[in-house]
Amino acid sequence: MSSASRFVLIAALPLATFAAAFLLLPLAQLVHTSASGPMGLSVYLHLLERPRYLRALLDTALLSALVSLAAIAIATTAGLFLVRHRFAGRSLLIGLLTFPLAFPGVAVGFMIILLAGRQGVLNQVADLLGGRMVLAYSMTGLFLGYLYFSIPRVILTIMAAAEKIDPALEEAARSLGASPFAVLRDVTLPALTPALVASGAIAFATAMGAFGTAFTLATNIDVLPMVIYTEFTLAANFATAAALSVVLGLVTWVLLFAARSLAGTTVAAGG
Amino acid sequence: MRPLFALQLGVTLATCLFMTLPAVLSVLAGVTANYFQGISSGLTLQWVAQVWELYADTIARSLLIAFGALVATLVIGVPAAWALLRTPGRLSRAVEEVVTLPLSVPGLALALALLQLYGTWRGFRMSDWFILVGHVLYTLPFMIRAVMAVMATIDLPRLEEAAAALGAPAWRRFIDIAVPNAAPGILAGALTVVTLSIGEFNLTWMLHTPLTKTLPVGLADSYASMRLEIASAYTLVFFVMVLPLLVAMQWASQRAQSIGATR
User: Which of the 8 DSSP states describes residue A114?
Assistant: First the structure.
């Protein structure tokens, strides 16, 4: 072996050691734990038979799908607007749409409590009108919270893709007499499709695994991460918690892998 | 043209309001004497002072762990990024896929995995090291990707060949050529690691003990058990710490990208 290729091995050694000790072995242990309960491997069948787990899985998937669609619709509208128009205050608006990127999920939950909780601004307005509006601790509250952390990620991906569209294409369509709506439908959106798929997959996967926001808002709602958390900490049901984690991890990984093969790199984080 | 324009403008402004309003309310609540009576009850820093008394240790621990994660991701990630680019084809793609797993597998699942394997090793489990491991696990892919992205745009093999012809051994070529040329990527990666570490909750909540609480863990604690003004003041402290980092991180990432584009 040449000294150059020996140094490549040395350079990769810290990564190999860390990944083996704190990623691969723990994940293997997680799979092992899931199968070492009283039911063995059939714990995975059991998950499908128990309505509570199946429902939580389906509810979480449905919520995540709705959040992704809403985030894409909003982010595409606002993102295209910000890419196509230059005006004073444009960077400020971009900043206002993306600053929650670094917020932990619990802080996002707190934002929704201030917006739609018992002492939230919506309820204060409703109170003046003689009504009541507390959404924070319901599915609607979770939807708002997930939307809050999804919009910044999705909008950055969509804006980056929209910057790369050749303006000549849209101009050509316009000069041939296409209406603004037709240009959007036939030129802009098709060009954006890979970014829409990628960011949709990121939003969906992040929402599926979102723990912090659910921890603040979903005290009475069975979304998958909360079910895993209660099975593990309150019920000490380690095999079930591990099996549910394996299922959740596989779902999000497969999705993001597929999206990446379709559309380049992805960044999923937080929630 | 007009209706489409009005719709886009409306959605953009409404979304800005949705993102900004709760954060503004939170900042206001953190400096208002009594949030339920409104601003008219007076502005005060007493809640911020109370947060400092109650939670200063969590802030210090978060800074310490973020620094530790930075050092660890630099030591592990920068050489690894270089090695991955040196390794051709399928093997390096497979390794990259494995080490970026923490981006696609939820933090809760990763934390359970760590707990299953190391939970019974008391000394490790009860220490800040356990949380540091979780943070390195989660932030390392960001460092590796940021460094690889910049290294891939430079003609490193050419530069290193020239150095090799002049007699520089492999480790000197890494230190003297690869690292300085990848500096913009390393800076972007470093700021990302620190920002994400300070805000990390999903793993940390599972990994922490009563004696190893970080800032976001303390936030969750205050949301559940403190009055709204203290929870808000604590959130304000978090904003003040993380928002400058976020701005710096986005600036550094764009700079790294544009350097890549012009070479």
Answer: H
B52 and B31 housed in the same domain: no
pLDDT band of B20, cuts 50, 70, 90: very high
Cα B230 to Cα B220: distance, rounded to the nearest angstrom: 12
Question: CB-CB: which of B98, B116, B195 is closest to A29?
Answer: B116
CATH number at residue B173: 1.10.3720.10
CB contact under 8 A, B202 and A269: no
Distance from CA of B149 to the nearest CA of A (A): 11
Q: What ipTM was predicted for this assembly? A: 0.92
Q: Report how many domains make up chain B.
A: 2
pLDDT at position A119, please? 85
HSE toward the beta carbon, residue B205, CA cutoff 13 A: 30
Do both B25 and B61 map to the same domain?
no
Q: Does A267 have pLDDT greater than 70?
A: no
Residues 6+ apart with CB under 8 A from A30: A242, A245, A246, B109, B112, B113, B116
Is A12 in contact with B12 (Cβ distance < 8 A)?
no
Distance CA A169, CA A172 (A): 5
pLDDT over 70, % of chain A: 96
Q: Which residues on chain A are in Cβ contact (under 8 Å) with B206?
A: 229
> Domain containing B39: what range?
1-44
Do B139 and B210 sit in the same domain of this protein? yes
Same domain, yes or no, for B212 and B111?
yes
> Domain A43-263 maps to which CATH number in 1.25.40.80, 3.40.47.10, 2.60.120.580, 1.10.3720.10?
1.10.3720.10
Verify that B161 and B208 share a domain, yes or no: yes
* B18 shares its domain with B142: no
At A5-25, the pLDDT tens digits run 888 899 999 999 999 999 999
Q: Cα angle vertex A245, ends A244, A251, to 5°?
A: 90
Question: Both B36 and B144 in a single domain?
Answer: no
CA dist., res. B97 & res. B104, Å (int): 10
Paired residues of B43 in beta bridges: B32
CA distances from A248 to A47, A156, A251, B107, B108 (A): 12, 26, 5, 11, 10
Q: What is the mean pLDDT of residues A196-213?
A: 94
Tokens of A202: 């990121």
Please name the member of B9, B83, B137 whose beta carbon is closest to the beta carbon of A23. B137
- Are the beta carbons of B221 and A110 closer than 8 angstroms? no
Residues of chain A in contact with residue B172, where contact means CB-CB under 8 angstroms, are none
Percent of chain B at pLDDT exceeding 90? 76
Residues of B in contact with A32 (CB under 8 A): 116
